[in-house]
Each structure stands twice: as C-alpha cells, then as structure tokens.
Amino acid sequence: MRILLLGSGGREHALAWKLAQSRKCDKLYIAPGNAGTALVGENVAINVSDFDALKAFAVDNRVDMVVVGPEDPLVKGIYDCFKEDARTSTIPVIGPSKQGAVLEGSKDFAKQFMLRHNIPTAAYRTFDGTTLEEGLRFLETLQPPYVLKADGLAAGKGVVVAMTTQEALDAVDDIMCKRAHGAAGAKLVIEEFLVGEEASFLCLCDGKTAVPLPSAQDHKAAYDGDQGPNTGGMGAYSPAPVVTPEIHAKVMREIIEPTIRGMAADGIPFTGFLYAGLMISKAADGTPTVKTL
Asked: Is the pTM higher than 0.70?
C-alpha cells in the first residue's frame, strides 16, 4: 500500500512513525512533512491546502490511501475534493467531510450539537461583532476564572482561561477586535469554567462505530503551577491515569456514541479521527462526572 500523509507537525511525525511500521505500507509520502518524518518516509514539498497539487501527486504516484493529520484541510473540504474528482474518487481519505469537520472547526457548532444531543458539556454563550456589547454584559454576570474561545481553528492557541475580569476583557479585545487569530475570531464563545483533570480522548470512526485509541493528558499552561497562557498541548503523556476503566466506559456511553449517532441523525456521518477534550471531576456524592470542553 502506498500512503500519503498530510501535515508537518509532531502529530504527523507520530503517525508517520507508526504507519511506516505496518507490513502493509510499501511506500510512505508525507506532505510537506518535517525533519522527523523524513527519517521514516519521503517528504513531499506540497502545502496541505493545495488540493489540486495533492490530487495530481496521488494520481501520478499511485497512492492507495490519504491520511489527513491537520484540521485545516479537513475544514476546507479535502475529503470532498478527492471524492468529487473522478481521478481520485476511489482513494480512501481518512478524515471527515467538510460538513463533518465543522464539529472541530467551529466551537459554536460543536456546542449547539452537544446541547441538541444531550452530550454533557460546559454551559456557554456565543457572540459576534453585532452582539459584542451583550457579550461584555454577560461576562459581568460570571465569576472568575473565565473561559474564552475563538470560534474557529487557531492552531490550539484560541482558548484563554482568564483569572481576572481585566484579563477576560483583554482576551475579548485580542480575539474580537484585534483579530489575534484572524477569521477564527469572528465569533467568541464564553464558557463556564470547569474544575477537574483534563484529558484527551480519541477514536477512529467509520460513521457508525467508534474504536477508541489510548487516552492522553497534557500540561497546557506555559508556566509552573498551571500559570500562564495555553500552549496547545505541551508535556503530553499517554495513557492518562485519570481515564480509569469506569471513566472510559462513561465517555464511550455518554459522549462518543451519542456523537456518532447524532452526526448520523443530522445527516453528516462522521468518519476519521474524532477528538474529545474532557474535564473529569467528582460530583458531591463522589461519583465521577465527565464533560466535554
């Protein structure tokens, strides 16, 4: 099998390292790749958003499968682009359609989806440029810490946990007014702050079922003592001790399976890798609780 892996980060290095170990992998290409991926496959100088060049490369090099690492090309519709072209329509693309990728590409969409399908998540409200004053008034009704998120993709840097009102106001200014994250900040999600241990839960999905992968946990704050800005995932380790067998079963039952069913019910079967950020804590009676972030 000849595989084309898209991406250039640490995630893609891990994927490339593991894909190259498969007895079914005869040739591994990584576009554009990095120094680490070059050790296990052949880097190809093609941008992940250059769909025409990627399709031409896949045809010319008899690629049998495309594995998409980054969210950005999925949100832009690479799955659909391959499927709609007669030359590449039979090449499996491991990742969701453009519609399915909105689950990752828009935090507001994800929140609405979770509420609609009774998936536990933090309480929230969403604001845009026309309702910014309303958003500032909403902030005044909350107690710190505050959680503010750019709605769109921001390379893992679009989330701010503000410890004071002034930090929250500065975050609103950065995201909505100064557009620190570009178009990703066209909408702002203000969320309830959840207390507990954070964990990452990933599954490989075919639209009907989900196969869980090992859980992970990371230390996201830049400084010691959980201080400083969100780093997007520094210091990750796996499996996460906090995801006990009981928690694992609860996540599958209350979050993953309802998500798969919900996306299918909404006419958007989800295929590819499904990621759920979790906050794990205990209720007053000591029973474990899990919510999505």
From this structure: yes
